[in-house]
Design goal:
211 residues, 5-stranded parallel β-sheet, two-stranded parallel sheet, 6 helices, 37% helix
């Protein structure tokens, strides 16, 4: 299978304790999955700051809904698209709610399923929707002020909204909020150990899909 992983800084491998150094590929959850599934082609498309649908006034090119059609076409044919977004949409400046995040993600899912909007091959990939990981004690974190306690509190509810959305659109779902970013000082980004936990959840879902 050709599997596209579409995400933000946690897919990219940002290290909260060492932001100048990207986490090594074999330590990122995508790299761990590549080792677990050598028969599949793992395609990383992680970008720090990527949102589901917002234009970030501080960082251009972060609107995930706008850039996704180009990337789907770049990498097609695709068998599976794994979407793990939502953390950045909880930033204070965006004023999102779990419901508006669900509505935004619904549009992204419909975009992937509407192959007439982007596909040359006419092949429709399956979708695995992954809820974002929980934040740790964000008020003690280095990104406090960009995120706040409300940002952290939204994640579990977003996970439930995404679960319902996956059922509605016949997508697979993984509750990434079972993993918490508690090991680094920003309490937003996953450590190598937490990447292993995320890889286990996603890998089990892919294995189940193959059965």
């Amino acid at each position: 299978m050709n599997i596209l992983f579409y995400g933000d800084s946690n897919t990219w491998g940002f290290q909260g304790d060492n932001p100048k150094v990207r986490l090594a590929y074999d330590k990122r959850f995508t790299g761990i999955l590549a080792k677990r599934f050598p028969q599949h082609r793992i395609i990383e498309e992680g970008l720090p700051g990527r949102t589901i649908c917002f234009d970030d006034p501080l960082d251009s090119g972060r609107n995930g809904t706008e850039t996704l059609p180009m990337l789907l076409q770049t990498h097609e044919p695709l068998d599976l698209v794994v979407i793990m977004l939502g953390t950045n949409d909880t930033k204070i400046m965006f004023g999102h709610t779990p419901m508006t995040m669900r509505l935004a993600m619904e549009r992204m899912i419909r975009l992937v399923q509407n192959i007439e909007a982007w596909s040359d091959t006419g092949i429709r990939p399956d979708i695995l929707l992954v809820a974002p990981p929980r934040m740790g004690d964000i008020e003690r974190g280095t990104f406090y002020g960009m995120f706040d306690a409300h940002s952290a509190e939204m994640i579990p509810e977003v996970a439930e909204q995404f679960r319902e959305l996956a059922e509605q659109y016949a997508c697979m779902f993984v509750d990434g909020s079972q993993v918490a970013a508690e090991g680094c000082r920003d309490f937003v980004h996953l450590t190598a150990e937490e990447h292993e936990q995320m890889a286990k959840l996603i890998g089990d879902a892919i294995e189940e899909m193959e059965e």
